[in-house]
Amino acid sequence: MSYLCPVKPTIPYLQACFREYNDAFFDGELPEVPIVLSRSKSFIGACTYKRRRVFGLGTRLSDFKLRFSTRMDLPEEEVQDTVIHEMIHYYILSKGIRDTSTHGRVFRAMMQEINTRYGRHITISHRPTPQQREEVRDKRPKRHIVAIITLKDGRSGIKVIPPTRHSLTAFLRGLRRSGQAREAGYYLTDDPFFNAWPSSSALKIYFADMEAVRAHLTAATPLSGNKNSGTL
Ligand SMILES: [Zn+2]
Asked: Number of folded domains in the chain?
């Protein structure tokens, strides 16, 4: 089962996970560790530490921290699996256990044991999947000018333009020159819905589901009161 966290994971939530899993999977052997939130899109979780040389003893690891990115909307189960993943790193590193690589034999054995015994789905990846990265990109509010163009043949389409006077002017010039537009309306919007179209001043009209497009423009600011709006 998988469902979305109602809210982004918080430090108290992650600490509660840590304590629960420490007792359940690690016999409570892990010392409390600082949990840090970040906005990184390059990792979901990370276990960081400092390496220092101790005379006669080689290197020692200290200052462990578990870091989690709140950038992605992950299903709660994935957040929990990420906590366990980082805890396995923390266990191996803090106990000075030698492994064959970062996610080597010891790591995988512990991971598989927890997965099989407790029905979890921990993986060896720290990185968001391309789909998760895409979702972050698509959801970020970004300012656009959206042009709604009705062509002389009656078809309507959309063009997303960067929100600068220069880009809008360049687009208008191209559109006028083409002589194909019957009507054009321009809107300023932050709705991430419009991130899906390439943003440029190039003369290219996309024939989209115009009902959905118009629904997303109800809250947009019409660029009225200037010669660029309304009928062209
Ligand atoms: Zn890892």
From this structure: 2
In a domain? residue 87 = yes
| 126 CA from centroid of ligand 1 (Å) | 5
Provide the token pair at 145: 């000018």
Q: Are 120 and 114 in contact (CB under 8 A)?
A: yes
Structure tokens at 55: 């005379």
Let me know whether 185 and 199 are in one domain.
Answer: yes
For residue 220, give the 3-state DSSP assignment: coil
Per-residue buried b or exposed e for 93-106, using 16+ beta carbons within 10 Å of the residue's own CB: bbeeeebeeebeeb
CB 77 within 8 A of CB 121: yes
**In degrees to the nearest 10, what's the CA dihedral of 75, 79, 84, 86?**
140
231 located within any domain: no
113 carries an active-site annotation: no
Convert the pLDDT of each residue in 3-43 to its tens digit. Answer: 444 457 899 999 999 999 999 999 999 999 999 999 888 88
Residue 185 belongs to domain spanning: 141-222
Same domain, 105 and 168: no
Catalytic residue among 86, 134, 135, 211, which? 86
Shared-domain flag, residues 157 and 132: no
**What is the model's pLDDT at position 232?**
38
> If you measure from the C-alpha of residue 46 to the centroid of ligand 1, how many angstroms do you get, rounded to a whole number?
7
Q: How far apart are CA 70 and CA 72, in angstroms?
A: 6
